Amino acid sequence: MSLGEHLVELRKRLMIAAIGLVVGMVIAFIVTEPVIRLITIPIIDVAALRGDTVDVQVMFTTVTSPFDLRIRIALAIGLLLSAPVWLWQVWAFIMPGLTRKEIGYTVGFVGAAVPLFFAGTVVGWFVLPHIVEIMATFAPDQTALYYDAVTYYDFVFKFFLVIGIAFVLPVFLVALNVAGVISGRDILKGWRIAVLVATIFAAVATPAADAVSMLLLAGILVVLFFAAAGVSMLFDRRRRRRESAILPPEPAS
């Protein structure tokens, strides 16, 4: 294909992806109110914890804030609903330029990254109330807590995004290993730092009295790290065997 044909193909793929996104946003806009009620549950829990003497509530600071919040939520959910459409358009555009081996790696990475990302968001949902509760404890006594609705949603969205990406990081480590950037042994050498970071994160994210939840969350992150190191070491072994089979035998002395 010429450059012009590639641009026409790209425009076609982008148009289909955009239509899918708009349809997903329209569908998602209908469920924005239940989503708002769902993500504000932690704030309701904080209000119950602090009692009737302290005012805790979500507020809208501008005339357009309620509509702006619903559009933001519809965009996020619309991206998820339309993911099969725009992911297929991206894949259909780049697949002709990939080798069979590269296609296999891409399918494997996407197949591992997507479930891990959603698993991270599920964990983030259970962790979120504790984060909101911990942050509320820093407010002085007899002070009101007014959460701007749009700002609060941005915090929740970014929090879920960060947790989801944290669960996908092992896949990126394996991808770097496949690309030859880092070896499996180098990944394994950082196990102490990985365990420390996972433990600190789990301790902050879970209730202080719930040691089981802390150990469970830290254990999941550590297992994912060691799984990435193990898979990378297997790839290194296969790479060494392949290279040794290609190299010619040494001449006899």
Could you characterize the architecture of this molecule?
The longest helix is centred in the middle third of the chain and has 37 residues, at 100-136. Helix content is 79%, strand content 3%. Strands 1-2 form a two-stranded parallel ribbon. The mean pLDDT is 80. With 253 residues, it is mainly α. It folds into 2 domains: 3-165, no CATH class; 182-243. The chain has 10 helices and 2 strands; from the N terminus they run αααβαααβαααα. Helix 4 packs parallel to helix 7 (149-178). Keywords: Cell membrane, Membrane, Protein transport, Translocation, Transmembrane, Transmembrane helix, Transport. It is found in: Cell membrane; Membrane. It is a multi-pass membrane protein.
Q: Layout of helices and strands, plus pairs?
A:
Blueprint: H1 3-30, H2 32-39, H3 41-50, E1 56-59, H4 65-81, H5 83-94, H6 100-136, E2 145-148, H7 149-178, H8 184-189, H9 191-205, H10 211-246
Parallel strand pairs: 1-2
Helix pairs in contact: 1-4, 1-5, 3-6, 4-7, 6-7, 7-10, 9-10
Keywords: Cell membrane, Membrane, Protein transport, Translocation, Transmembrane, Transmembrane helix, Transport
Family: Belongs to the TatC family.
Pfam families: TatC
Question: What class would the helix/strand composition place it in?
Answer: mainly alpha
Radius of gyration: 24 Å
Largest sheet: 2 strands, parallel
Overall average pLDDT: 80
The residue ranges in which pLDDT falls below 50 over 5 or more consecutive positions are: none
State the order of secondary-structure elements, H for helix, E for strand.
HHHEHHHEHHHH
Distance linking N and C termini: 54 Å
Number of domains: 2
| Approximate strand percentage | under 5%
Give helix % range: over 70%
Shape by Cα distribution? flat
Count of runs of 4 or more consecutive helical residues: 10
Could you give the order of strands across the largest sheet?
1-2
Beta strands, count: 2
